[in-house]
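Title: Comparing notes on inverse folding

I've been comparing how different people in this forum approach sequence design from structure. To keep things fair, I'm posting one structure and asking everyone to reply with a full sequence. Here's the target:
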């Protein structure tokens, strides 16, 4: 990798690549990470409002092992801090979500959002520049028309490759509350943006108007019992989308039924076991992420302790439930006191929908194989990463005698957490964001 900013270093980690910073500045903390539809580009957003796009190294006969490397392709400032003078509120520049649009031509397009404003960015390459203008000099100054005695035909001259990022659309003034997710429709013409109480439908060509398709705001805000936490379009059916709530439920909506989708067509919620109910039950049941599988048959949701897979044909209970870090169940009180219990972990499918991945604490991330029912805990950190190293599974010990290769649950560092992960759409390459570090792991290269 070739990115250099203040205090940065770039390390090669075996079959992985790490963008790391020696000092963790608040603005450098990664807040979202996303592969594009081909997997050739990887975008990250941070709390400083910046977007960094990495491009995959092209295959070389002399160095085939470099095929998996991602180098910095473009860096640009997507959002700036703003102030809402009407409400006396400061609007952070932090990038909440990035979503790529499928590539239609030589340029790339992505949507990025902070708490209030969504922007459509075009990323394009330029390796030629026009020369030989009639009305201006090569340095751009306007020429005196009286000195022009002949007409020239401008020509394109080669130049060093330059990657430009330009904001093509700005979608603003549509959300009263903080935007938590955006999702591009399969029709490639519309997308949804979601805040705590509303879901808005936008046309990618129209910036001054959106349609409110879900509104759960009660007439009296004192009667508010739940908020929307995430929403996503179905990957094939352009009229279907799902949104999750802080009460642990998922609603599937069909836009063909009504203009306002307040009435869902399917409702997914697991009945609570009365024997396990506690003060923290409602908090840990809140869904932080919802994702359709690539084939459109399943929904995956992440709450604080588990990942659940739902079959769209079965609303009564989840098809599969995976315990992410059940050893934390006895520590919920201390996690509540340090606010970690409110952390919002994301989840992601692999390209074939056979493996799912999500993050945990101590820079651990978990993988679950749906076919073999095997799971593994891996750690993303500089301390245990050596050149060409293979990541070793980690285990957490809960009480009793601790083995040499295990880590005690009391030793976990809750300030190190992996909230954001993404998986290459076609290959076993994953990107994991750990605070201000970006790790890219791939299958072992021979």
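Reply #1:
Here's my take.
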């Amino acid at each position: 990798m070739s990115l250099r900013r203040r205090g940065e270093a770039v390390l090669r980690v075996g079959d992985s690549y790490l963008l790391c910073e020696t000092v963790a500045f608040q603005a450098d903390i990664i807040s979202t990470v996303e592969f594009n539809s081909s997997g050739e580009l990887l975008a990250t957003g941070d709390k400083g409002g910046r977007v960094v796009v990495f491009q995959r190294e092209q295959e070389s006969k002399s160095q085939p092992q470099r095929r998996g490397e991602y180098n910095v392709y473009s860096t640009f400032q997507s959002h700036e801090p703003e102030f809402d003078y009407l409400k006396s509120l400061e609007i952070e520049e932090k990038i909440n979500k990035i979503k790529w649009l499928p590539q239609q031509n030589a340029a790339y397009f992505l949507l990025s959002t902070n708490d209030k404003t969504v922007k459509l960015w075009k990323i394009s390459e330029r390796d030629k520049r026009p020369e030989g203008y009639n009305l201006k000099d090569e340095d751009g100054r306007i020429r005196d028309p009286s000195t022009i005695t002949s007409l020239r035909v401008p020509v394109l001259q080669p130049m060093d490759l330059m990657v430009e990022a330009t904001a093509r659309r700005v979608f603003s003034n549509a959300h009263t509350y903080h935007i938590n997710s955006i999702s591009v429709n399969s029709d490639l013409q519309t997308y949804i943006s979601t805040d705590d109480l509303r879901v808005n439908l936008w046309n990618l060509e129209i910036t001054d108007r959106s349609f409110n398709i879900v509104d759960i705001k009660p007439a009296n805000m004192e009667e508010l019992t739940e908020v929307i936490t995430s929403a996503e379009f179905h990957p094939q059916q352009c009229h279907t989308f799902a949104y999750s709530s802080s009460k642990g439920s998922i609603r599937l909506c069909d836009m063909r039924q009504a203009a306002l989708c307040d009435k869902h067509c399917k409702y997914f919620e697991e009945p609570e076991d009365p024997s396990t109910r506690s003060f923290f039950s409602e908090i840990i049941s809140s869904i932080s992420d919802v994702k359709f599988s690539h084939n459109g048959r399943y929904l995956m949701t992440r709450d604080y302790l588990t990942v659940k897979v739902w079959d769209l044909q079965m609303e009564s209970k989840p098809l599969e439930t995976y315990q992410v870090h059940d050893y934390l169940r006895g520590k919920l009180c201390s996690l509540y006191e340090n606010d970690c219990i409110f952390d919002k972990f994301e989840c992601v499918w692999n390209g074939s929908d056979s493996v799912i991945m999500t993050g945990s604490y101590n820079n651990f991330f978990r993988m679950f194989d749906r076919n073999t029912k095997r799971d593994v805990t891996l750690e993303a950190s500089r301390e245990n990463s050596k050149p060409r190293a293979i990541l070793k599974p980690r285990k957490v010990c809960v009480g009793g005698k601790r083995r040499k290769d295990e880590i005690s649950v009391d030793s976990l560092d809750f300030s190190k957490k992996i909230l954001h992960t993404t998986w290459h759409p076609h290959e076993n390459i994953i990107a994991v964001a750990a605070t201000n570090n970006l790790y890219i792991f791939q299958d072992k290269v021979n």
